[in-house]
Amino acid sequence: MATLKVGLVSPEREVWAGEAKMVVAQTIEGQLGILPGHAPVLGVLLDGSVVKVQPADDGEWITAMVGSGFFSIANDEVSILAEQAELGAEVNVAAARQALEEALAAEGGSDATAERRARARLRAAGQDA
């Protein structure tokens, strides 16, 4: 069975790498599902979105919040380069909820980037945002 080689990195670290059956990413142009054999693409990630990876070993879907960044697909390799990235399993839910409350309270809720990222952290962790 064909798989994808996936790497999700931020400036601080490699967040996740491995073989996958499928990747779903939110771009500025819409959601994109990536399967083995996908045509080459270079895209822009939607800031404050969630990337989902279905591991090749039939494990549970891996979710990660991503800040702005890019992804590329070529020869069954998916590279996701994000300014900020955090696995859903690593999200401190209480801190993410606090960040969302602070973003909503700032100048009447005018901090849209912080709000989007806080909501994405909660969605990646499987929480309602």
UniProtKB/TrEMBL annotation:
PANTHER family: ATP SYNTHASE DELTA/EPSILON CHAIN, ATP SYNTHASE EPSILON CHAIN, CHLOROPLASTIC. It comes from Actinomadura miaoliensis. Residues 4-85 form the ATP synthase F1 complex delta/epsilon subunit N-terminal domain. HAMAP family: ATP_synth_epsil_bac. Keywords: ATP synthesis, Cell membrane, CF(1), Hydrogen ion transport, Ion transport, Membrane, Transport. InterPro entries: ATP_synth_F1_dsu/esu, ATP_synth_F1_dsu/esu_N, ATPsynth_dsu/esu_N. SUPFAM superfamilies: Epsilon subunit of F1F0-ATP synthase N-terminal domain. The keyword Transport applies. Residues 105-129 are annotated as: Disordered. Produces ATP from ADP in the presence of a proton gradient across the membrane. It comes from the Bacteria. Its main location: membrane. F-type ATPases have 2 components, CF(1) - the catalytic core - and CF(0) - the membrane proton channel. CF(1) has five subunits: alpha(3), beta(3), gamma(1), delta(1), epsilon(1). CF(0) has three main subunits: a, b and c. This is ATP synthase epsilon chain. Belongs to the ATPase epsilon chain family. Pfam families: ATP-synt_DE_N. It is a peripheral membrane protein. It is found in: Cell membrane. The keyword Glycosyltransferase does not apply.
